[in-house]
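**Protein fold record**
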Amino acid sequence: MRFGKGYWKTFKSGIEREWVITNGIGGYCGSSIIGANTRKHHGMLIASLHAPVQRYMILSKIDESIKLGDETYSLAATQRPAGYEEGQHHLQTFIYDELPHYRYQAEEMFITKTLSFEREKNTITIAYDIVNGSKEATMKFTPLFNFREHGEKSEKADLIFDVTDNDNVLTLMHEKHKDFPVHFYFSEGKAVKREQIYDEEMEYQTEINTGNTAVENHYTPYDIVVEVRPYENKKISFVCSIEDDYVKDAFANAENETERIKKLKESAGYKDEFADALVQAADQFIVKRESTGYKTVLAGLPWFTDWGRDTMIALQGLTLATGRFEDARGILKTFAKYVKNGLVPNMFPDEGMEPLYNTVDASLWYFYSVDKYLSYTGNDSDYEFVKNDIYTKLKGIIHSYSNGTDFSIYMDKDSLIHAGGGFDQVTWMDVRVGEWVVTPRHGKPVEINALWYNALKVMENLSERFGESSSEYTELAEKVKESFNAKFWNEDAGCLYDVVDDSGNDDKIRPNQIWAVSLPYTMLDRNKEKCVVETVINKLYASYGLRTLSKDNPEYKAHYVGKLHDRDAAYHQGTTWAFPLGGLVTAYVKVNDHSAESIEYAKMLLEPLKDHLTDGCVGSIAEIFDGDEPVISRGCYAQAWSVGEILRAYTEDCISESDGALRNED
């Protein structure tokens, strides 16, 4: 993905696109494609002090300037209340392949800057490859330090450090974080103390857009000054780390990380540009969790942590479609460990905290994940793993849902699952503003009961495989199917009710019904399935995903903008989400018997997302988008279930050996 000067004709156009790379333990690095930080979550090193959480901004950026003869060229791009520093005028190209690369030019000098993480370390490396022309040059590098929670901001009074300079390493000790000394290594040059030790009033445009605090300060105790002779080619490594031991060769580290990512794409086995890009994007969400010792999934970047529901929906694309089966096993085992009262945790424990269990669907998506895992692997050893580590938990979930558990989750006399009440938010449409539950969906939600039936059929298959009686699951599944067809079909609208309840049925047209068609085990006849798919396409499809509410509903919100209250009001009331599009693609191909024509149509449904990979956060898929034009990506700039579901649907339903794309079944 290559971007040239046409993408930053103005400073504002240059900050419309951003990027991110991650370290596999919750830390990340990211900025805009012109190097200007536009949000509090932008920075060169956001470290995870307790993987994958407790994320702290350590190094905001490095500002560079070049003195050639009598002229000085600043490469720094920064927004301040007083105006812009427009170093992007010297930026020739931004390239995002396996890593981000900036190429600058000043007179005869060219500078290429490449950023990469040391894998599973809180260590960022910045490699400068300098090609000089005929003039003597002096380069000055100014690192902007901080030490604050990644969603907060710093005043000058917060930036109290002890600093030592020894053998090309600056060591900074923040007064409140003395257990985490910051090491800043430079392979060339000398450290020169600055008179102005603070970078003041860096302004973040994204925070302005969302009504948040938008100005902060950073600590700048030293410049690193490097002399470059005429016609000299020079390579300089900068490293910032909070580790005791860290790599010092930024170029070798970048090569290692590049090769690692290339191998991930090769191992996935696709010969397809879109699939390969999503395989790389998927890697950003799979991280180690210190408290469990296993892998987990960050729901979204930059601010979400690992949530049960999001993990179970994203897992298929992130781990199975990419061939990362060992990671899948670890994730499934982790969540099995924390099942309580039949509920998979919605949020994991940290620092002695208890997990949060306020979700009805995470447990049911867990059955789907187990079943899909076996469909991708299917070896005797995989079934043994499920039997030994997971099967008892699955039986416990069915028992708890049948007999009732927390959050008003219980099987009613019609064998359908009821969930929620009061201020509960137990489905994925879970916004609550004070005492206002925006989309309560209390009662019997459509996707919950579709997942309930799917779970019963999974248990029917597993119990037979493991030599146990399957009759209770078979009989209960038939009762669910009968009740579902009798109660959920909305004849007037030709689709499914969103929620069925004794107090009345909710006939809002929402995307939740698509899973009643796309899941492996479903209850509707083919004609009704086709009607659901047609309704979802006609009423909800919006290029990058599915709207959360039909545009003809008076409660529809067209844009996700403004302060938090306004955005929360729109979150599930019209805002487009990418991840349900995966369900639509699978459902569409299914109801059309996987015909060549249906596969081509499904590709057209996904086509806009190929362009989206060069917009927003380049190389990834955002959480949400506006419901109406102009459709702008919002929320988390990179979302696990967006990437996971699009990757799963594309590789399972849209590409084949005839397309030159073949998954490696080994």
Summary: The radius of gyration is 26 Å. The longest strand covers residues 53-68. The chain is about 30% helix and 25% strand.
